[in-house]
Amino acid sequence: YCDGVHSIIDGSGLNHSVAGESSKFSVFLRDAYQYPSPVELEKLQVQILQVSDLRQVWPSIRPVDLLQFLLLQRHESMKQSGGEVRTSAYDVVYTPEKSGTYEIRVSCGNIPLNAGQPFRKEVSAGEVNASLSRVVDYAPRVPKLIKNEIVVELRDSFSNPVMFQQSNLKLDISSINKSEFSTWGFVDNKNGSYTGSYRVKDVGTYEICASLSGKHVLPCPFGVNVYSSEHFPKAYNDAVSVWEDESISFNSLQNDYFAGNASVVIAELSKPVHGSLLQYGHDFRYTPYKGFYGNDSFTYTISDVNGNLASAAVNISILLTPPQFVSFPSQLLATEDALSPRFGSGFSSFEITYSDLVENISVTLSARSGTVCLSPMLMQFWMPVWSALCVSTGNEKARHLALAGPLEVINFALQSIQYLGDENFCGNDTIRVSTMNKNGRNDLDVPIFVEPVNDPPFINVPEFIILEEKRGEAGTLIFNRQRDKFDFCIGDPDLLCFPGNKSHFLVMFSVEVNSGFLSTNLPAELISTTELKLKNSYQWQPLQTFVTISKHFMVKAKGVRFWGTVNDCNSVMQQLSYYGGEHGSILTIEVNDMGRYGCYPDCAELMSVPIFVEATVNLIRRRPMSSLVAHTLGTAIVIEFIFLFSLGVLLLFFMCKCAMVLIHEKRRCVRQGQDIELSRIQHSNQQTAFTLAAVKSCRRQVRPITMATTTAAYQKLLGVGTKIVAVGRNYAAHAKELGNAVPKEPVLFMKPTTSYLANGGTIEVPQPLESLDHEVELAVVIGRKARDVAEATAMDYVGGGYALALDMTAREIQSTAKSAGLPWTVAKGQDTFTPISSVLPQSMVPDPHNLELWLKVDGKTRQQGSTGDMMFKIPFLISHISSIMTLLEGDVILTGTPQGVGPVKVGQRIDAGITGLLDVHFDVGKRERPKRS
């Protein structure tokens, strides 16, 4: 049956043609073997379709003409049976009448030809038919000194638009008053229409005629009345902008021109593409479709009472509103001096919406009394969402957080917002969230309440104070700003953000000395909360008696404690005086905030505990040692230590030297005693020395003999040996790994001695092979002639010894030879295919059936096996082979290879060996054949 690939479709009808002209192409049907495949006429289907409007052209299909039929008849290309004509060659004739692009598809039954691909051809318009061509557009009234246009359409006999005729078109203008005019060449609009331009200088009536190559195009002539330009309306383009999802009303005629007060109507109005347009007289209302943003437009044409027209366009920009908030929290909660929220990724109630999912938008978050930041985001093992997120913190103070990216990324980041208030700040704050795009900004203020945390009070006092000398019974002022340049004060960080009156912030303050007395003035408001610790008493007692002068009273005791404001505490501390002995005292200051000003330690339970701090000040009468004196004394101590250490080192040196002298003296005495004893036995040792010398001489003679024997055996192997007998499949594991059956008797094949390669040589891979297979084997070197040898005496003929050999195999050639029943000589016997080591004497190999063979390629172990796994042992092999052929001195038997054979490629290195006896190495290279002349 006909084949869709081998069948042939050819002819001029597949090429470019002109509308109305007949086209023909031929179809030659072939089967899969490229023989003619005759079919009935009904089986051949041809579809010719115009691409632009799917217009179909019906072809005429008939067998090839008579002459071709007679030539093809001998090849049985046409057969007749039962009144039906079957042939393998058909002509297809068709006439396209419309210009454009056509697709031609041919099928034989249900088999599409040309591999299912359609043929495409272009049909161009024919010659211009003047009777069907027209001047289709012109203005009967035009202004003077203005460039005006007329439009001409050219058609062929089948009404096809004719293009590329602008050079043949001409515009003729005539006038009664002989006014001046100008014309321009026609412009091809690429659709069969042409635009020509003209301009006249004076007012009047003109007759215009368009012609193509001297032939007039109807109507010809047509009249045009020219007026002054002030009589014509002028419309100007307008630009309007509106927010998305909103509506706008405007009057586009406000900037247009009308002659006098003539009434104007909107004659034509186009519809915008992306919105709805309503007209109310001269007013328009435009509403963009929901979700649309970008640019839209429409055109309108105005007409005055004389029918003069003017057109303009209204360009509308639909602006994207700044991102809007879909959800946001009404109130946030945070904790003083802590990153909030403490649990979770962040405040998760922020979400914005934006129409453009791809455009980068910007969101800025800031707080008046704190910092907004991002929490660490969860790791994502796919393409992370936040990879397109840009984060910045603005200025160096990093008071605000700026996020930039697409909508999805911004919403993802807004779930990780965290807040950290300023140090010791608590109370009400506001987080401002500002969303921005290129068209504007949207702000949102979210209140946040920062819960106060009870901070410990602080006490600023020095470690010690040097009191002034005692003058009579008067006390000494402890904290004197004129004497000590130090800021003596107490305070509490919670006072800064205390919501109420500062006078309601009260702390418990106490001062106490371990010896002597303290005195100070207290405001009268503190009488009810003041407690004293008197001499020899360890209990605080309420104030019993007091004298108030100017709303103050004085107390004198070992310790004073009261409950007051921070200012009261600082005022009392500044007036504190000490009465005591010559040795000074220790002043203890304590401040307790009573746990009333914030939660502690965690606001989760809304609980708090009192926090108090304590400081001690050493009150001393005498001025301490100056820094210069202290450094001088310290330096003297260090120098003294270094001097004593040097003396100790010197003493240790002399002690060690004396010990060494005593040891050398003792060794000298011992050597003298040994010399005396040696002289007594010297004579008896002379005979022993002679014997040792003889033995060493014998050893020096034996070694050369052994090496000479090994070298001689190796030279016989290379020079005297006549053949290499190789045993295949002697290891069961090797036979199985190649998919071969285990043999019942040895499988033998021969290799030439020209395939030997000494240790360190290069194994050559012949052309065109890319690799060889390695097989490491134990080689047995025959020492004398052996024929029909018994198995019991076979080992007597191994006079040469043993060696390690590689049986290199071209596996691809061997597989082909095996399948064809051919010998393996080409696969086994090429040069360098039998790399071999030096020969080991029998004395070095006491048991050849207990050797470990190994092979590595580029340092990686490929083969490792024991000769004990051989199925046919060496005595049996020698007896079996000698019963077939005579073995001569220097002949080699390769006893087979263990499992693990594999390929090696050019550039690799082979290392092989017999464990504990020898090892060899060979490189793998490419064999270069000489070029043929």
UniProtKB/TrEMBL annotation:
GO terms for molecular function: acetylpyruvate hydrolase activity; metal ion binding; oxaloacetate tautomerase activity. Residues 723-918 form the Fumarylacetoacetase-like C-terminal domain. Filamin repeats lie at residues 1-123, 188-226. The chain crosses the membrane at residues 641-663. Keywords: Membrane, Metal-binding, Transmembrane, Transmembrane helix. GO terms for cellular component: mitochondrion. GO terms for biological process: oxaloacetate metabolic process. It comes from the Eukaryota. The keyword Coiled coil does not apply. Pfam families: Big_9, FAA_hydrolase, Filamin. InterPro entries: Filamin/ABP280_repeat-like, Fumarylacetoacetase-like_C, Fumarylacetoacetase_C_sf, Ig-like_fold, Ig_E-set. The keyword Transmembrane helix applies. Belongs to the FAH family. PANTHER family: ACYLPYRUVASE, ACYLPYRUVASE FAHD1, MITOCHONDRIAL. Tautomerase that converts enol-oxaloacetate, a strong inhibitor of succinate dehydrogenase, to the physiological keto form of oxaloacetate. This is Fumarylacetoacetase-like C-terminal domain-containing protein. It comes from Escallonia herrerae.
